[in-house]
Amino acid sequence: MDPKQVINFGAGPAKLPQAVLLQAQKELLNYSGTGISVLEMSHRSSDFTKIISKTESLLRELLNIPENYKVMFMQGGGSGQFSAVPLNLIGLKKDRCADYLVTGTWSAKAAKEAEKYGKVNIVHTKLDSYTKIPDPSSWTLNPSASYVYYCCNETVHGVEYNFIPETNGVVLVSDMSSNFLSRPVDVSKFGLIFAGAQKNVGCAGVTVVIVREDLLGYGLKECPIVLDYKVQAEMNSLYNTPSCFSIYIMGLVLEWIRSQGGSNAMEILNKQKSSMIYDIINASDGFFVSSVDEACRSRMNIPFRVGKNKGDDALEKEFLDGASKLGMISLKGHRSVGGIRASLYNAVTLEDTEALAAYMKEFLKEHQ
Ligand code: PLP
Question: What are the Aminotransferase class V domain coordinates in residue numbering (predicted)?
């Protein structure tokens, strides 16, 4: 199919800005006159040093990262960080325990992994379904916890925090894999932020870790060296061969975000796009159903069911088939949730979203 006729609403790996792909294509065989591809370049060469330094300084600029934070480019994906976070931080205090907010699949997985390395306390009553964020006034935070962990945007369930949890001085850790750079964030409120690149800032293979310097050096002795924040920070992410090409692609995406007006502009655009879809859901008289609390509906991932009584499999299949005929792909909901999921990351344009909105309205008219 002609790429111009396809709109990718995938949850990740996800759509990249067209300008980034064209630039990467242009430079694929001969990067900046070096005569070689970034794919072939030594990670210790001066050309790659420029690429990784530029990617880091763009991140620092776009997120206004304070000087006392280290930026690392790690491997192992978001899941690697589910292990790396406790391996490096659960030893911050002698009790070796950590508080977890579990509001969806990804924070649940992170909490389960952390249990291997220390005590995990889930700070709220267990949720029957991942459709809301429990009221902070009901959380029982442990002042002796080494850190408080949450997932800022639950990609599978479409639950997003629009506030930063208050932890009374305990180190705050956040998985921002699926809403990184989709809105401004005050990095100084966090001990650590991590984000896999393959949704909003690039392709799979690299995970950004932003960590406050004073938290380095508390790793458990069994922490694998490639996941050791202190080692990776001291070696500028070059303890071993990093994902060079993915770091290069991230640099191009960050340049593109800057050219669009940075995180403020991304936020305006993402609000506009997500409201367009939620407005249709809300006005559909129960034909399209979002079960997520309005207060925490994600701007990035919008899961919904089609058909009254919370979803009709046949109707949903028809919806997906019709969308696919129009070039709109990867709209199928996560297998654990079913239904439809529209992911509207930074690279999904207003026009892409308008096309989906028009299709939803048409489908509603035909079937209601
Ligand atoms: N965290 C979030 C919020 C995610 O959406 C995902 C994957 O989709 C992960 C973590 C796991 O990332 P990875 O597949 O890179 O390990």
Answer: 7-356
